[in-house]
Amino acid sequence: MDTLETPNTPPLPFHASAKRPRDLARELGLSEAELLDRHDGPEVVRLRPDIRAVVEALPTLGEIMSLTRNEVAVHEVVGRFGSIHLDGATGLVLHPPLDLRLFLAHWASVFAVDIPDEKGPRRSLQVFDAAGDAVIKVHLRAGSDVTAFEAIRTRFAGKPASPLTVCPYPTTPPAEPGDPKAFREDFAAMRDVHEFVPMLRRHGLDRRGSLDAMDGAHVRPLAPGAATALLHAAGAGGIPIMCFVGNRGCIQIFTGRVTTIKAMGPWINVLDPGFDLHLREDLVAEAFEVRKPTRDGLLTSVELYDVRRGLVAQFFGERARDRPEPPVWRELVASLPRDGAVDPRLQPKD
């Protein structure tokens, strides 16, 4: 989980608190970005938000761990930045195992963090949105290029003219749908999943609202614990999955098999070499099986939503481009119990 940095604000020493930055910031009534900005010392440097140039410099770091999270899920992938394509305010990183979708309009502040530790310095570049919430954190590893990190910190450092200001995003009410029948007709005619988001805009729907407009052939509510059951089944069956976790500014994707799945308190965790997932299933308010039409047949996903009806994670089966999804993935999802049913896989054993 997000434990690789422990910034604090004076008068406490920088490394004095064992609390996670998000937890400490909440206790102090700050955003995490404000917490970093108020630190007075060389351990934290606020960088100029020259976002495109910062992104383009990331490959120089070598092997890193990329962390993307929201309130419910933390997604960590070890890899190297490369194959970066920027187009206006959006970006794509497709350099397996690193797979990212970047929404740069929400990249508001950037910090270089270098924490002293008895095991050696812990270095990272951390990006936050306008509300001060983390977008992505790029953590250096033992084999990372420290000289490149220092060069980025030096290149983009500049004494800020004023303290960082943050502005919470306004609460967005659920979208008022247009004609559900017209949406269902368009949806049924969809040939590519990338048509889905523009379709939502045309029909005045958000993603969660679209599920209410779909018919039973395309959406099925799942019982609590769906993600835990899915991960255990995929691990036991050796079924490759795709796991998407995102926030306003970034979506990070893992593709592959999961093997080590462990529950720790409220968290269900995947703890595999090169990939960690930490999911607060108690904060998942709703889960759904969703089947989207494509030219290659129905594409099945499991979608998790929080109490605010925001999408926090998605799971797909791994598939080759322009090929149908594997039947074993469709069978796995079909085996997940419907909402209101009890999944025997999640019951305590005598």
Automatic annotation (TrEMBL):
Residues 1-20 are annotated as: Disordered. Coiled coil: none annotated. Residues 29-155, 205-336 form the Haemin-degrading HemS/ChuX domain. Pfam families: HemS. GO terms for biological process: iron ion transport. This is Hemin-degrading factor. It comes from Aureimonas flava. The lineage of its organism: Bacteria, Pseudomonadati, Pseudomonadota, Alphaproteobacteria, Hyphomicrobiales.
